[in-house]
Amino acid sequence: FMKIVIDDPTFLGVNEAALALSEASLSSTELVESSLSKIKTEGKELNAFIHVESELSKKEAALSDARRRKGTLLSPLDGVPIAVKDNIDVLGQPTTNGLGTQWLPSQDAHIVKILRNKGMVFIGKTNMHEAALGATTDNPHHGKCINPKIYSHTPGGSSGGSGSAVAAYLCPAALGTDTMGSVRVPAAYCGIVGFKPTQHFWDTVGVTPLSTTLDTIGPLARSVADIAVMTDVPLKSLNNRDFSLAVLDNFDSADMQEEIRSVYEQTKNLIQSSNVVIETTGLVDYEPSQARRWGLLISEVEASVLLGDLLIRSPKAFSDELQSMLAFGTRSSASRYFEALQQINSIKNRFLTILEKVKFVISPTTPQTSFLFSDETPVNQADFTALANFCGCPAISLPIKHQAGKKPMGLQIMAAPGKDVELLSVASFIEGIVT
User: Could you give the residue numbers annotated as active site?
Assistant: First the structure.
């Protein structure tokens, strides 16, 4: 362990970094400077950051080191660096929301206050899909963000910069936002862990909204234990008799890449060989692609209202593509919008009934692996992730170890709203089997 610290502190996860700090194997200043240095060198071509905060973060690290010397630490995470998606306000750092403009917030977002009160150090703002409305992070204003596991491929989105930064060891963790899968899709494509907590687990004050109906803040890291310590969720120690899993036949029969289907089947077999029961259930009248279209309509209508003033003030800050999506939202009738809301509410009620019987539902995180920027963007990227947003459920994407080529893949686990402790505890157990 000491050798890892001495060789390259950026390879430490959140818990490992906290332990190294507590053992005085390294200082927060060394940890933060190693991240900043890697962002400038290896991270440069990834374009994972819109803004790198060298000066303030070095000062915050020095203050953390001073607290450690005095014995006045704010939490075990004091001095650990973190990156933040650029639709989340950090005092002293510009926010762009992935648009061609920026503003300086007057205060931290609520989630940033929480983590700042723990002493975490904010090293910069990560690249994202423009206005968080899309899943490639091919940003017209700030450039493409590259997937560090497969160059010239997308890291996913909309929290693509956060996924890329964590996967490339530029920082131990990052914050993202998830409206229909925007934390879990990058986690799956980049081979890391992405968690969407129960909706409203963290207040979204200080986050530029996309859809107030669906938005959730979520962390990305390299292990479930790292997610747990950031979210203050105490993991329970489980064995294979403590829980069972279920699959939805709606997802298992949905359109997906053959590579995904094959690895997913192998993963289910692997889980069952550890004596974890997997049963099959179904969500009546649920068609993932149709449901995703309702979610997109809701997002476009709400975004057109929420971003309307900014669009009038700074039209050049919005690409033509984004403007046309917002115009579609503006033109959509109230009756279509309310029908979409009713449809997802009906889905929610039916799925929550299922979750009373089966506590945890697994699926592939995405129907495909990461793709080249030059490829056509698949429309169904969020077909398996959107359900958790419709229902306010906690959901996590775990990386799956497999032999089929080198492209990362994710396994998604969902639970009922409020069951974040149970979900992360099960995810920690499954992580030991599949990664």
Answer: 85, 158, 182
